Amino acid sequence: MAELTRQFGDGLAGFFGSGSVQLVLRLAVAYVVAVWLAAAWWAFRDAHDRTTNPVVPYLAAGLVIAFTPLLFPLGLVLYRIARPAERLTEREEHELTRDALLAEAASVGTCPGCDRATAADWLVCPSCATRLARRCPACERSVSLDWVVCAWCATELQPAPGLVPESLGRSEGRQPVGVMDTLAAVSDSVASVSAAMSEAVANAVVGARSTADDERARVIKLDRPRRAVEPATGEVAATSEQTQLPA
User: Fold this and answer.
1) Can you say how many angstroms the Cα of residue 125 is from the centroid of all Cα atoms in its chain?
2) Mean pLDDT value across residues 102-118
3) pLDDT digits (tens, 9 = 90+) for 195-243
4) Burial (CB count within 10 angstroms: exposed 0-12, middle 13-18, buried 19+), residue 24
5) CA gap 61, 75 in Å, rounded
6) What is the DSSP string of the chain?
7) For residues 165 and 113, is the Cβ–Cβ distance under 8 A?
């Protein structure tokens, strides 16, 4: 048994002592060291892209190096857990997107009469006819009611009456009111439409009766001459028969 163990050990020593095996081992060790250093460099660059603190990238690289070439994957796992979630470029992109959304939301106004969302270039609210803006007489672009100079062509503008949006069709100085007035206006409109329809139906009935009376009178006028001609025709026929009998 001892002899067998000695022979096995001599075989392993001879195998690892050969020049080709030694070369392969050296290349493997060099490869592991290269990957270790590359992982430390990657941690340095990744931390540099994720934070503005100049010390953090060196700490990340030192963490990977401290775990030696045998345990550096554990250091990479710890770094990935502790690193910031976003890169600086991604953070800036998200901030720009958020600012753009906020600016877009701020550009969408609301109607002071009905609180409906309105566009920046609308002149009148389509829901309650509240005047929202006016047009520049020079460039025909939409301008606010309180502007005294057009921002597009620098044309001086006449001050708008009241400097507040006012409803079209309402008296000057009276502001649009709420839902109750809107319902009242709708009720008035329905009542006026119903009255107009009733009047139209009544006119149609009267017109139909007048047409029937005219037709009846025309028929009577045409029938009277025909009845007057029939007796005369009968008398002429009787006279002709009497004339023919003596012959």
Assistant:
1) 18
2) 77
3) 767 777 667 666 666 676 666 666 566 655 555 444 444 444 444 444 4
4) exposed
5) 9
6) -HHHHHHHHHHHHHHHHSHHHHHHHHHHHHHHHHHHHHHHHHHHHHHHHH-S-SSHHHHHHHHHHHTHHHHHHHHHHHHHHHS-SS-HHHHHHHHHHHHHHHHHHHH-EE-TTT--EE-TT-SB-TTT-BB-EEE-TTT--EEETT-SB-TTT--B-PPPGGGS--BTTSPTTPPP--HHHHHHHHHHHHHHHHHHHHHHHHHHHHHHHHHHHHHHHHHHHHHHHHHHHHHHHHHHHHHHHHHHS--
7) yes
Give the separation between CA 148 and CA 159, rounded to whole angstroms: 6
Nearest to 104 by CA among 119, 84, 122: 119
**In the numeric block, which tokens belong to residue 35?**
């990957």
Token readout for 134 is: 């006016």
Whether the predicted model's global pTM rises above the 0.70 cut: no
Give the whole-angstrom CA distance, residue 75 versus residue 66.
Answer: 8
Q: Give the tens place of pLDDT for each residue, 25-80.
A: 889 999 999 999 999 999 999 999 999 999 999 999 999 999 988 898 999 999 99
Q: What is the CA radius of gyration of the chain?
A: 52
